[in-house]
Amino acid sequence: MRLLKRTSIFVLGLMIAAGSLYAGGGQQSQSGGASAKAKIKFGNTQGEGDTQTMALREVAKRLNESGLFEVDVFINSSLGDTDDMTEQAILGSGIVPLTDPSRLAAFVHDFGIINMPYILKDHTALDKLNNSKIMKEWEEAFRKEGIELLTSNWYSGARHFVTNNEVNKPADLKGQRIRTMGNDICIESVNAMGAVAVGMP
To answer: How confident is the model at residue 116 (pLDDT cuts 50, 70, 90)?
Structure first.
């Protein structure tokens, strides 16, 4: 069995309701005194040994060491699935969900294109994209939806197909049922390669 790989781009998105966190990084204390530490929850759907989880724990460690934040990491969908966490964050919870462009396309449709297979030569192109004019326009569009993108160049390895048959080219996928994320960009990409996409929630 071989794997047909494609680039996968993940976005660390912080969605906070206006006023839930102050620009100084702390929440106003009820006594009117010094600002308290900003309490934040990092959430993902991956397990303990996953590179995403390891990276989140390192980021949390560094933020906690600053003395400005109190960050906890919740893995294995313990705060809900990706869409659940995103909804909670938009409603004002101090949650930082790890999500991806195809899911965020529900808020800014064109953003989903960067999760399309083979659109980037490799992950090094992410930095150039991150500093582009179109990225700035997307970021502003997300702000209007109550979403702030913390980083758009989070690379978590190449996506791949796992099949019972050897796959070396798209034609090898013809007629095979492939499970994928249940959004338009992923479903249509898999179908375009000749496979039959089965969208998952």
So the answer is: confident
**Could you read off the pLDDT of 145-175 as tens digits, one per residue?**
989 988 877 777 777 888 888 998 889 999 9
Q: Class assignment of domain 5-108+120-157?
A: alpha beta
Q: What is the pLDDT of residue 38?
A: 92
Confidence class of residue 183 from pLDDT cuts 50, 70 and 90?
A: confident
Q: What does the domain layout of the chain look like in residue ranges? A: 5-108+120-157, 165-201
Tokens of 49: 């040994």
Place of tokens 């204390």: 29
> How many C-beta atoms surround the C-beta of residue 65 within 10 A?
9
Residues in the chain: 201
